[in-house]
Fold each of these.
Amino acid sequence: MTTSLEQALNTVSQLPPEQQAMLVEIIQNRLIESRRKEIAEDAKESIATFQQGKLRPQSAETVISQLQKALDENPMRSRKL
């Protein structure tokens, strides 16, 4: 743990339980929003790449098959999905 993380945990532990719960909810919501923004940026980049002709259309079956193969080859990645 870094010093700043330890300081944050010490500060949080001094809050009443209700405020600690609120803080957990706020942090979870911020993480969710951050992930949504990351996904949106990835989607924009993918669309731009497709529109530039750098990707070719594929059937849903092909994409799902490739995704399943990638997940089978690297099971740790499937935990993030």
Note: The longest helix spans residues 17-51.
Amino acid sequence: MNELRINGGRLWQSLMDLAAIGATEKGGVKRLALTDLDRQGRDLVVEWARAAGLSITVDQIGNVFMRREGRNASLPPIVTGSHVDTQPTGGKFDGNYGVLAGLEVVRTLNERNIQTEAPIEVAFWTNEEGSRFVPVMMGSGVFCGAFSLETAYAARDLEGRTVLEELERIGYLGEQVPGKHPIGAYFETHIEQGPVLEDADKVIGVVPAVMGLSWYDCVVTGMEAHAGPTPMGLRRDALQVATTIMQETVNIAHRYPPYGRGTVGMVQVFPNSRNVIPGQVKFSIDLRNVNDELLNTMHEELLAFVAATRRESGLAIELERVSYYPPCPFHPDCVDAVRAATGKLGYSSMDVVSGAGHDAIYAARVAPAGMIFVPCKDGISHNEIEDAQPGHLEAGCNVLLHAMLERAGIAA
């Protein structure tokens, strides 16, 4: 069993075949959730699964579970998967790799006539990207009870179409109640979507946790005035005050390394005129860290700085936390299974805490979960130029294979 390996060329070809559905001129993929292209992508994966002898179950939010039976049908399945929907300017590997790596594990077990003790399943979750419908990670979120099926069904795209209508239209409105599908353990294999592994020249990222995040909307209100006649000391410049908060966002992150993150990604300046002192600035704040204590400390420091700035500047400053996802530590048994498989196979590795959200976050609420990262070129993802080396993808799938076998057991 130590010599067992997947077929890297077959995995790569499957990725390229799926990427042809919704292919863009720049080499990426546009396959938004619950569109006709998403249906075609889903249909292709399900066709491959059936060819590999897997049975198919679809739940009421369109999550798909593809099952390879084990010797003991009473055991909950060891599940792997991700998603097949993409960003509007997405790449070939984000999400798709995790699904097709799972399918390649099954194909390898079939070829070697290996029966597992527990069943093995490959899943793909609905609307992970959140590009067409909000909330993000919709299918896995409904599955774990983070929000209701009714909330998901009512979500609308920019043209007014609802999730329920589109699930019905593309033929993926299943019957199983979300969350009623048992999971013994869950693994998700993914490109890193960051530069850490490539920078360190490591092949495998062992993922012990996913960062938590706090999102805020901040509004600073001053007064518009002519840029020429108004002396500096008499100005109520909303932008200059806002920039001090923006800088403090970055400073807070620097105070809590190595996983502190602070980002201002969206700014709206009113009236946005060259010779008018800005009267109002609206901007986003994104804080992240690896545990609740650190993230809460960063939150409190931001509140304190905003309060002090409000007093010192005399301007009105509103700060509202609009979203919060707690940090997600993965189960030690699953992390250890990934670490052990990586060591057994002889791949270079390091621990990498994920800064991005994944379906594994929600799966971890209902079952032991873990993740495997492989490098992506220049750390670029959510971009048509997203790229990964075939050898790295093969290595990650080999780790997945052995980690799943460790959890599923091999039938005597």
Note: The longest strand covers residues 212-221.
Amino acid sequence: MPTRARPIRLLVRAALLAAGLVLPATAGATPSVPGAAADRPAAERPAVAIAAETAASPEGGTRLTVVLSRPVEARAFVMERPDRAIVDLPEVNFQLPPEAGRKRDGLVASYRYGLFAPGRSRIVIDLAQAATVARVATTTRPRDGATLLTIDLTRSDRDAFRRAAQAPEPARAAEAPARDGVDPRPLVIVDAGHGGIDPGAIAGPGVYEKDIVFGVAQGLVQRLEAGGRIRVQMTRDRDVFVPLNERVRIARDARADLFVSIHADSISAAPQVRGATIYTGSEKATDAESARLADRENKADATAGADQGDGPADVADILQELTLRETRGFSARFAKGLLTRLSGVMEMSVKPHREAGFRVLRSPDVPSVLVELGYLSSKRDLDLLLSDEWRANVTGQMAGAIEAFFAGRLPAAVTARGADVPRIGRAAQIGPAPVSP
């Protein structure tokens, strides 16, 4: 065996051994552990990444090569602010040296990798300058049978990069046959703001934000249930106080696909201000008014005399940060579609889509929006908010926006309206919701 090939082959064998694809040299040296890689069918074991390196590509850009134990399917795209190239993979067991990805080389400022979500791994390449992914390919290395995953980056001008950096479609899980007891439809959490001891904004004697938004939330739930395409769960099904962090926890524990919080603002000093606004989460508010509103809403727990407690965990590592960024991208995408539909049936504010640091929008893995339906301080808005006809139009358009957002991942069995599927309503609020595939 040539001396230069031996270390590579030993690395490949070590990686295959870690994946359970070959047996140890000494029979019986490693006891079988239930659920370990060796006990899983070969097709279910993740590929192992054993090496990675960057170099100049033949086309003049930069190439990242990852050595894998077997072929995988990969897709790549670029994202802006900051400039990154993203490579999505099925689950991969990364066994790379600690220094991998830290050295700047050509178009690659650095890269990182890891498990991004159950069954999904990701490589994130920080770009030294604007660049696009020219090619992603896998080949078999003849000398040892390892798979080489190559990602070729090529220089790009800013305009071309911006055009390429469109928001990616939500990643879809692999199609799996329906199983008894598992509902494959997307799950939406509908959050009626305030409640119980926390009335929210007050328009007059007995006219509380908590009651108005609860009525709208119920209408939206009924619309979605009638369509049969979406599973629905509410954060509260009666006039009860629910802490802000608990609302986020409900969505995360249920593994929700979308969180929609419904509110109605009030500005007593400016009764002429009216119209609806859709908010998505951000550490930095779009404007001072949005920051003030988020601050007021975030004090809801204190208003009810409750300890705010611990919010969603701080971003602990770069992969969680990437998850949050991707989630906020999906939130913005839904907000855009919702705005398009609502603008046809209701008055929108001067800045209809804004960002602010609402606590209920801080879930790192559930796309979330907060809809301010209007201003209780505006007589015109209040009249509409109390109108059954107006509510029906609004909830119908909201339901349509939700169904459109999930159109690409609705199960075939429920794409036709009126399909015979189980109808899950408020009973689903008791206990965890079924996990979407």
Note: The chain is about 25% helix and 25% strand.
